[in-house]
């Protein structure tokens, strides 16, 4: 079974799109605008999809323990890049040899892990 997508409902619709497009590097694949503010973004293979729906009633993404994870070439360099852009990433975690990651919250409050 293949996971199709993760849905994030947010009052910060355009900021959420910009985060996954400009920071994570995903591309808008399906766009329901105008009509319904809903977009799907994915990587070049279409394997990672994030569905973003505008919902003015959503204060945040909900579960504080939910996270979405992405692989990056160099977690430490990417963490420094996010800090330079004004984000507040969590500490670098190194649970074992060769494994490094950190978390940052996206505009809707979702914990995003970068490894």
Describe this structure in words.
The protein is α/β, with parallel strands linked by helices and 115 residues long. It has a single domain, classed as 2,3-Dihydroxybiphenyl 1,2-Dioxygenase, domain 1, CATH 3.10.180.10. It is 18% helix and 35% strand. It is built from two helices and eight strands. The strands form two sheets. Strands 1-4-3-2 form a four-stranded mixed beta sheet, covered by helices on one side. Strands 5-8-7-6 form a four-stranded mixed beta sheet. A hairpin with a 5-residue loop joins strand 7 and strand 8 (111-114). The chain is globular and about 50 Å long. The model has no long low-confidence stretch (mean pLDDT 89).
């Amino acid at each position: 079974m293949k996971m199709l997508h993760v849905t994030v409902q947010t009052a910060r619709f355009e900021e959420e799109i910009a985060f996954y497009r400009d920071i994570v590097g995903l591309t808008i694949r399906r766009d329901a605008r105008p009509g319904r503010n809903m977009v799907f973004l994915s990587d070049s293979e279409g394997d990672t999809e994030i569905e973003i729906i505008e919902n003015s009633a959503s204060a945040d993404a909900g579960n504080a323990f939910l996270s979405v994870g992405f692989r990056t070439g160099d977690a430490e360099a990417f963490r420094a890049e996010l800090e330079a852009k004004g984000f507040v990433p969590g500490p670098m975690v190194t649970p074992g040899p060769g494994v490094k990651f950190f978390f940052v919250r996206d505009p809707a409050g979702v914990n995003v892990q970068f490894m």
